């Protein structure tokens, strides 16, 4: 009778050890699944960019390879430079403010062109004649197969006087090089060797 009791106790210990072993395996399995799922969730969240829209709503945008958007950013950089540089109001402070912002996006070649126009009295005539000038970009053609990127820009200038409106064709070329992104240069490019290759009147409309 005593021997049977000992056998029962030994069997009970074996069952306890088996149950403990199975429980430990299950715990390790659950921990492994949790870790894997957590890592997968973190990777998925890393692919999202959360954007605060005017401090109100939280929007989610998927992140992409930066090189995919580079051509779009390049064309936007060139477009914005031309808008700042060639949009002129009959106000000295407004002119200086715009060209300073444009200079942050280009090298010395843009300043040299501005200086040449200033020395010829171009901006003084704009101010004294109360002339408005704006630009519309038709297209920005860039070669992204070779670096630095060669860019040609086609647009129209509208010279607005009290008596007439002059429409002028504008064609420029330049080179784009990668630069450091900043508040004044969000696309991270610098315009080099900026040059105006065509700037001529095509139409004048009396007002």
Automatic annotation (TrEMBL):
<keyword id="KW-0812">Transmembrane</keyword>
<feature type="transmembrane region" description="Helical">
    <location>
        <begin position="16"/>
        <end position="36"/>
    </location>
</feature>
<dbReference type="InterPro" id="IPR022276">
    <property type="entry name" value="Conjug_transposon_TraK"/>
</dbReference>
<keyword id="KW-1133">Transmembrane helix</keyword>
<protein>
    <submittedName>
        <fullName>Conjugal transfer protein</fullName>
    </submittedName>
</protein>
<keyword id="KW-0472">Membrane</keyword>
């Amino acid at each position: 009778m005593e021997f049977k009791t000992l056998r029962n106790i030994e069997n009970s210990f074996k069952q306890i050890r088996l149950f403990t072993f199975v429980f430990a395996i299950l715990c390790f399995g659950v921990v492994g699944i949790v870790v894997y799922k957590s890592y997968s969730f973190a990777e998925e969240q890393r692919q999202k960019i959360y954007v605060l829209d005017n401090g109100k709503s939280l929007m989610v945008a998927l992140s992409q390879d930066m090189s995919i958007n580079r051509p779009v950013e390049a064309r936007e950089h060139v477009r914005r430079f031309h808008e700042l540089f060639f949009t002129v109001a009959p106000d000295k402070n407004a002119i200086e403010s715009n060209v300073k912002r444009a200079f942050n996006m280009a090298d010395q070649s843009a300043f040299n062109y501005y200086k040449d126009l200033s020395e010829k009295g171009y901006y003084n005539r704009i101010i004294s004649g109360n002339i408005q000038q704006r630009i519309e970009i038709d297209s920005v053609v860039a070669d992204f197969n070779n670096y630095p990127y060669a860019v040609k820009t086609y647009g129209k200038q509208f010279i607005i006087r009290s008596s007439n409106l002059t429409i002028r064709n504008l064609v420029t070329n330049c080179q784009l090089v990668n630069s450091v992104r900043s508040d004044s240069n969000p696309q991270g490019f610098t315009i080099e060797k900026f040059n105006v290759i065509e700037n001529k009147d095509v139409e004048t409309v009396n007002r």
